[in-house]
């Protein structure tokens, strides 16, 4: 589960931004493709405009349509990606589009393979090896925010097999957080998930051993 406090903290300062290129057209006509071409300032302004619309719209979550809220979450994920949290941002964007994430030796694999926990698991692999692995912020902050606890297994052997890491990217309203702000953000993401703005997605990462 991704800590959305990270994304929200990135978007809050944007509330004073006006007249960016992103707002030269109605936010209702801005597409995912448009968002993908925006910079952080423009993405922040888009999120701000979506929030502003909540007082005039009469549909769905907090007065904003689920489709528009999905785009706002996509924009937040894109900001995280541009800020260097490429894995976390990617899963938010996939969730906002309702797409499962699958890769082989890609973005996640490159970061996972560099962690000591993965290296230790791989070098000590046997039929009785643990089938789960947890990435902490001290291991890699991006993996902690995007994956944290995952399932792990291997087909073949450590000299020529394939290591498969799987996870479910979702939100739980029962999650306990020490910070009330972080809990609020997580609960809002859970509500967005319940109304279809965010989708529970499966994550599958294959790494050639």
Walk me through this protein's architecture:
With 209 residues, the protein is α+β, with helices and mostly antiparallel strands. It is 43% helix and 14% strand. It contains nine helices and five strands, in the order αααααβααβαββαβ. The protein has a five-stranded mixed sheet with strand order 1-5-4-3-2. Strand 3 (149-155) and strand 4 form a beta hairpin. Helix 3 packs antiparallel against helix 4. It is elongated, with a radius of gyration of 18 Å. The protein starts with a helix and ends with a strand.
Task: Summarize, please.
By secondary structure, the chain is an alpha+beta fold.
Keywords:
about 210 residues; alpha+beta; five-stranded mixed sheet; 9 helices; about 45% helix; elongated
Topology:
Elements: H1 5-11, H2 32-36, H3 40-53, H4 66-82, H5 86-97, E1 101-104, H6 107-112, H7 116-123, E2 132-134, H8 141-146, E3 149-155, E4 162-169, H9 180-194, E5 201-208
Parallel strand pairs: 1-5
Antiparallel strand pairs: 2-3, 3-4, 4-5
What is the CA–CA distance across the termini?
A: 26 Å
User: How is the main sheet built?
Assistant: 5 strands, mixed
Unreliable stretches covering 5 or more consecutive residues: 1-18, 176-184
Looking at the structure, what is the overall shape? Answer: elongated
Percentage of residues in DSSP E strands: 5-15%
Radius of gyration using CA atoms only: 18 Å
The number of distinct β-strands equals 5
Q: Secondary-structure element sequence?
A: HHHHHEHHEHEEHE
Strand order of the largest sheet: 1-5-4-3-2
What is the share of helical residues? 40-55%
Q: Roughly what is the average pLDDT, rounded to an integer?
A: 79
Provide the structure class. alpha+beta
User: What is the overall number of helices?
Assistant: 9
Q: Say what oligomer this is.
A: single chain
């Amino acid at each position: 589960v991704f800590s959305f406090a990270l994304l929200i903290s990135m978007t809050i300062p944007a509330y004073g931004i006006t007249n960016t290129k992103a707002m030269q057209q109605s936010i209702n006509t801005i597409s995912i493709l448009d968002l993908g071409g925006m910079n952080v300032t423009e993405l922040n302004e888009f999120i701000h405009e979506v929030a502003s619309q909540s007082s005039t719209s009469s549909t769905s979550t907090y007065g904003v349509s689920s489709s528009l809220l999905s785009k706002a979450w996509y924009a937040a994920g894109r900001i995280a990606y541009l800020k260097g949290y490429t894995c976390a941002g990617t899963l938010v964007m996939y969730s906002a589009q309702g797409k499962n994430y699958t890769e082989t030796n890609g973005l996640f694999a490159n970061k996972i393979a560099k962690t000591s926990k993965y290296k230790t698991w791989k070098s000590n692999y046997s039929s009785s090896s643990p089938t789960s692995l947890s990435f902490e912020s001290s291991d890699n902050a991006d993996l902690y925010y995007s994956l944290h606890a995952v399932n792990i297994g291997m087909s073949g052997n450590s000299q020529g097999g394939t290591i498969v890491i799987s996870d479910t990217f979702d939100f739980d309203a029962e999650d306990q957080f020490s910070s009330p702000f972080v809990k609020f953000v997580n609960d809002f993401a859970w509500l967005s998930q319940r109304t279809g703005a965010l989708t529970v997605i499966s994550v599958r990462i294959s790494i050639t051993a």
